[in-house]
Write a structure and sequence with these properties.
By secondary structure, this protein is an all-alpha fold. The protein has 9 helices and no strands.
């Protein structure tokens, strides 16, 4: 079955969910700005900034709490709907495949409920930081773009290997229940060994990608400091702020590939679910 049919069936709930995610992410991005307003007002002996900061905090509690309250119930519906439809199309398959597919559906729903909000918040935060960096130093901004392209190129070049390793891992998972029911210790030992083999290969690939990415981003951080200090006109506060924003940007960039890896795994799972 096509997963797009689920999005179509629950489209208004998905739209509401995405609206709440975006609202929460934008409010989180505004917090540093409102903290600055509160500090400025406090120095003047005024309290408007503090009240505005408190109002922002109340808003994120209502929106964030409301979204999580809605999400747990909404995605429970999605999981049940997907589970019933896919199980009805797997009547001829053995219990091992059925069990594995239910676990895969759970992974898809978990990504939508937990990882997607983090991804959107990360992207919105990164865009906000980039706008600030542009205002502070255009050269640092250009280097940030180059660093980002290089990091994503590293993960893009290894995407086929990532998909192949995930496919091998999922193939082994689909045999699990049958092997357990066989009560054959030899088969079970071989099965567990194969699972760990593919898991280790995925982990090793991630270590290489992560390490090379960090080399690129550390070089970007050093270049940013050199560019900022080399102007000779930047005040200490502005230089400190710029480096902090660069560090925040690096944190966002290094996190995005993990979401990309999750998306690659889910795309392999989606092919299995839609081949029915």
């Amino acid at each position: 079955m096509k997963l797009s049919l689920i999005f179509s069936e629950f489209r208004w709930k998905f739209i509401l969910n995405f609206f709440l995610i975006l609202s929460e992410a934008i409010i989180e991005l505004l917090f540093p700005l409102f903290i600055g307003f509160a500090i400025d007002d406090a120095i003047k002996g005024e309290y408007l900034g503090a009240l505005q900061l408190g109002g922002l905090g109340v808003a994120i509690i209502f929106i964030g709490g409301g979204r999580r309250f809605f999400d747990s119930r909404f995605y429970a519906q999605v999981y049940q709907k997907l589970g019933r439809q896919i199980m009805s199309r797997l009547k001829e398959e053995d219990a091992s495949v059925k069990s594995a597919r239910l676990s895969m559906i759970s992974e898809v729903v978990e990504f939508l409920e937990n990882s997607l909000p983090e991804l959107l918040a990360n992207v919105i935060g990164m865009v906000g930081v980039v706008i600030i960096i542009i205002g502070l130093n255009i050269q640092v901004f250009l280097w940030s773009l180059l660093a980002t392209v290089l990091v994503f190129l590293i993960y893009f070049l290894t995407r086929k290997k990532t998909l192949r390793l995930n496919a091998a891992y999922n193939d082994e998972i689909e045999k699990q229940v049958k092997i357990i029911h066989s009560n054959d210790s030899g088969r079970l030992s071989s099965h567990l060994q194969n699972l760990m083999k593919w898991n280790i290969k995925l982990s090793d690939l991630e270590v290489v990608n992560f390490s090379v990415s960090w080399i690129v981003l550390i070089c970007f951080l050093v270049i940013s400091i050199m560019l900022s200090a080399g102007t000779g006109t930047v005040e200490y506060g502005a230089l400190f702020s710029l480096i902090m924003y660069v560090f925040q940007y690096i944190g966002s960039v290094i996190a995005l590939p993990f979401f990309y890896q999750s998306w690659l795994r889910l795309s392999e799972i989606r092919q299995r679910l839609e081949e029915i």
